[in-house]
């Protein structure tokens, strides 16, 4: 079977990236796997065995048209059987346009919980206000057009599946849940930088609005008044970094917060922290929760993604509502004051994560099977 992915991740053009490695694994299950994605000017077309990569260089305003045109050309040139878009938004729209009038089937992947109210909501009276992209409102409308037209839909969690069923009912194909692939091998612990605090929290991820790092900072401000030994490492890069650094300074937390930027050893760093903390507004899955659990670090998280599906609140992790810094601060204090909980929860979380990964089995093979089912549908 010849398959085309319309990707939203330009890191596929980095030969050493984890995403590229996953694409190689996927390609082993197909006669041909072609992937197109918007990328920087340095990216070039590349072929590795059955895997072929095609960068698109264009302004964002013309991206959908450029992706659709390149995809349509590949459908005709290579006899593509299935086109799979890695979101139901701009990339899904490009895929929908590409398959129109051809025999190629349309497959849509949903990696984010875009029907969560927090996909468009900036905050509440308990939390700082976060500038969510206004484009998210239009993305929901695009999804309303794309998903009912899809011959197959893959989602990454039961939470996302149920949200789609509630909104679209029998207007869409029943979504198939295939989780995100996570390496179960735990890397060696990496040394955290020198700091003035003893109890180190760590958060890992893109510094984007939906991660709501502001809530973690607001919670930390409440905690350090009584527990000055607490601090935070922030691992990751993104467009919010400068604003978060300004907020850290404005609320006098510069001695308690260290920005580490993007780190290849992020998983190793987790293992040397006293707790992992996440305040995401929404998640489709939550890869870093699995990674933190495998690192045997206590977890504080908002109720998003696979929380409730893989991890149970107050049994495996401490789970709190979205946009509630006070609840986050109480969870931090809970770990500070209750050593037994801090020791027991990681053991349960690790067991839950390993059971989940074992049940997930061979993700590339499951994705290949899902695309085969899509092809066979009338």
Give structural notes.
- By secondary structure, this protein is an alpha/beta fold.
- It folds into two domains: 2-183 and 360-376, Glycogen Phosphorylase B (Rossmann fold); 199-359, Rossmann fold.
- Helix content is 38%, strand content 17%.
- The protein contains twelve helices and 14 strands.
- It has helices at 18-27, 63-78, 90-99, 135-146, 158-168, 213-224, 241-250, 266-270, 287-294, 325-337, 339-360, 363-376; strands at 2-7, 32-38, 46-48, 51-56, 82-85, 105-110, 152-155, 176-177, 199-204, 230-235, 257-261, 275-278, 299-302, 318-320.
- The strands form two sheets. An eight-stranded mixed sheet has the order 3-4-2-1-5-6-7-8, sandwiched between helices. A six-stranded parallel sheet has the order 11-10-9-12-13-14, sandwiched between helices.
- Helix 3 runs parallel beside helix 4 (135-146), helix 6 (213-224) packs across helix 10 (325-337) and helix 9 crosses helix 11 (339-360).
- The model has no long low-confidence stretch (mean pLDDT 95).
CATH class placement of the largest domain: Alpha Beta
How many structurally independent domains? 2
End-to-end distance, in Å? 17 Å
Which percent range describes the beta-strand content?
Answer: 15-25%
């Amino acid at each position: 079977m010849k398959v085309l992915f319309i990707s939203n991740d330009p890191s596929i053009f980095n030969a050493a990236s984890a995403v590229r490695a996953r694409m190689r694994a996927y390609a082993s299950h197909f006669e041909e796997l072609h992937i197109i994605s918007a990328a920087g000017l340095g990216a070039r077309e590349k072929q590795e065995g059955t895997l072929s990569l095609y960068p698109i260089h264009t302004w964002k305003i013309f991206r959908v048209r450029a992706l659709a045109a390149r995809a349509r050309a590949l459908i005709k040139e290579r006899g593509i059987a299935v086109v799979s878009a890695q979101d139901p938004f701009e990339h899904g729209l490009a895929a929908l346009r590409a398959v129109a009038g051809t025999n190629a089937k349309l497959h849509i992947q949903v990696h984010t919980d875009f029907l969560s109210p927090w996909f468009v909501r900036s905050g509440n009276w308990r939390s700082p206000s976060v500038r969510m992209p206004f484009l998210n409102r239009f993305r929901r409308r695009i999804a309303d057009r794309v998903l009912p037209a899809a011959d197959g839909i893959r989602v990454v969690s039961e939470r996302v599946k149920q949200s789609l069923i509630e909104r679209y009912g029998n207007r869409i194909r029943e979504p198939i849940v295939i989780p995100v692939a996570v390496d179960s091998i735990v890397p060696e612990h990496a040394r955290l930088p020198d700091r003035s605090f003893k109890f180190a929290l760590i958060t890992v991820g893109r510094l984007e609005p939906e991660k709501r790092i502001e809530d973690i900072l607001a919670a930390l401000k409440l905690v350090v008044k009584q527990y000055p030994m607490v601090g935070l490492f922030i691992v990751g890069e993104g467009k919010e970094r400068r604003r978060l650094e300004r907020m850290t300074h404005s609320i006098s937390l510069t001695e308690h917060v260290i920005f580490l930027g993007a780190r290849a050893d992020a998983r190793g760093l987790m293992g040397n922290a006293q707790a992992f903390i996440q305040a995401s507004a929404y998640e489709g899955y939550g890869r870093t929760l699995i990674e933190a659990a495998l690192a045997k670090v206590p977890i504080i998280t908002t109720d998003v993604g696979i929380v409730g599906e893989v991890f149970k609140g107050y049994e495996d992790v401490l789970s709190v509502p979205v946009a509630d810094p006070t609840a986050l601060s109480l969870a931090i204090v809970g770990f500070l004051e209750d050593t037994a909980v801090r020791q027991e929860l990681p053991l349960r979380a690790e067991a839950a994560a390993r059971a989940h990964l074992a049940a997930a089995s061979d993700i590339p093979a499951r994705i290949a099977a899902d695309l085969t089912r899509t092809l066979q549908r009338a």
